[in-house]
Design goal:
single chain; Rossmann fold; N-(1-d-carboxylethyl)-l-norvaline Dehydrogenase, domain 2; two-stranded antiparallel sheet; 10 strands
């Protein structure tokens, strides 16, 4: 039984999940690391920096004390990928419930190690079951209660079914899978490809160009994802094709917006300085580039995104080099 749920992270996605899950159950605790901001959200029931249109229900309790989350039956990690290990390490000494399910809702690949978020959690909490959640789930729409679907990955079928029944609803449809690797990689890699999709928008290249780019991005996502241990069929689902489409086309997508502004001539420093939330495609591009090099996988789109974000290449030059690649079989 899941009677108490702790959500770690008061960004847009963490706030949206708190709003959604509080519609179906009580016992929701939302943790943030900055006491002053947590107190303001608790007082106003609003999170203007990350999800301004949403209002937190009264049955969501705010806290900046991580120890208050250690006794929860379900702990959802919704932090930026670059700090997930740090937050997990802080929580570790406080954890006493070895049956608590740890649910990664963070989409990323750790720089340097190439580890997925669930691998970090399993390393930090070897006794606890770990699950993952991913899909085309834009925070603003989930908070509004608009219909969406997501996929929950867990190797223990009974836990997956319990989470499905606890977290799912007619407006938040939860599908289950035992294939964690592909679910996580689909959710992480798609953020990279949303950036060139946004660049295409910024350049005004039109729908034909963007459709071709997204299609070739999907082929590249599958190629690298399979090499990293995911199953090809998983990438055809919600956390692969579904999330890629939503992220590349939605006006709510931070990563697409980063690319659009790059295409309009803004520098990456200028763009990120004006952002409150993290665009996960930026750090993930570095991690994916490194993984592709280690595995010997051809990733022309990721290579160009990496060069633009981390080596200072101009977006126009990167786009031109992609267009000038040799023509070949579509299956290549």
């Amino acid at each position: 039984m899941i009677e108490k749920t702790a959500i770690l992270g008061t960004g847009g996605w963490g706030t949206a999940l708190a709003v959604q899950w509080a519609r179906e159950a009580d016992g929701i605790v939302l943790w943030g690391h900055t006491p002053e901001r947590v107190e303001e959200i608790a007082r106003t029931r609003k999170n203007p920096e990350y999800l301004p249109a949403a209002e937190l229900p009264p049955n969501v309790r705010l806290t900046s004390d991580l120890a208050e989350c250690a006794e929860a039956d379900l702990i959802a990690f919704v932090t930026p990928s670059v700090v997930l290990r740090q937050v997990a390490a802080r929580l570790g000494p406080m954890m006493k419930n070895e049956t608590a399910v740890l649910l990664s809702c963070t989409k990323g690949i750790e720089h340097g190690t190439g580890m997925r978020m669930s691998e970090i959690l399993a390393e930090q909490f070897p006794a606890n079951p770990v699950a993952v959640l991913s899909g085309p789930n834009l925070a603003a729409e989930v908070a509004q209660g608009l219909p969406t679907a997501t996929v929950l990955g867990c190797r223990d079928q009974s836990i997956a079914e319990t989470l499905q029944q606890t977290l799912g609803s007619s407006r938040f449809r939860v599908y289950t899978s035992d294939e964690i690797v592909g679910i996580e990689l689909g959710g992480a890699l798609k953020n990279i490809f949303a950036i060139p999709a946004g660049v295409s928008d910024g350049f005004g290249l039109g729908d034909n160009s963007k459709a071709a780019l997204v299609t070739r991005s999907f082929a590249e996502l599958v190629r690298l994802g399979v090499a990293m241990g995911g199953e090809a069929r998983t990438f055809q689902g919600l956390s692969g094709a579904g999330d890629l489409v939503a992220t590349c086309f939605s006006r709510h997508s931070r990563n697409r917006r980063v690319g659009e502004q790059l295409g309009q001539g803004k520098s990456l420093v200028e763009i990120t300085n004006g952002m409150k939330a993290v665009a996960e495609g930026i750090p993930t591009a570095r991690s994916a580039f490194e993984c592709a090099r280690k595995l010997g996988v051809e990733t022309p789109i990721i290579d160009q995104v990496y060069a633009v974000l981390h080596q200072g290449k101009l977006p126009a030059q990167a786009m031109q080099e992609l267009l000038e690649r040799d023509q070949k079989s579509e299956q290549g």
